[in-house]
Design a protein that fits this description.
β3 and β4 (72-78) form a beta hairpin. The chain has helices at residues 2-15, 28-40, 79-84, 87-101, 129-134, 136-144; strands at residues 21-22, 50-55, 64-69, 72-78. By secondary structure, it is an alpha/beta fold. It has a single domain (18-144), classed as Zincin-like. A four-stranded mixed β-sheet has the order 1-2-4-3.
Amino acid sequence: MIKKLLTFISLILYSCAPPEYKVPSEFIPYINEFKEYANEYNKKIESNNLIITYVDFGNTNIIGQCVTGNGINKVNIKQSYWNEVGDGLKKQLIHHELGHCWLKRFNHITTLNDENMPISIMYPSDFDEIYFQAHYKEYINELFK
């Protein structure tokens, strides 16, 4: 009986853990921009609860991943990808993962437009950086709609 009670208490304490914020400095500008758009579009997000870490996804096409649960929002980023790409693709990746974690957009959008480009940042892979930057405001509108 005591063992069950202690297990129950530890589950309660774990699930009520205070928010945690651990974000390496190189991600801060992208996080701040996302927060500004969330505010502009009146989206309430738990922005004090985020952990971003570099992860080696091995020989896969995975470049980012949002993991949520127990009140934690964790974004894993493939460091070799991050080190190789430009600002537009970094922004695209962080906005995509925060779309999952903070906006609770857990489904990917695979629809393409007439130019054969994704209609959403929530597309399941990265896409043309120049096109993304040229249509950035449209992607932001779709993300925060």
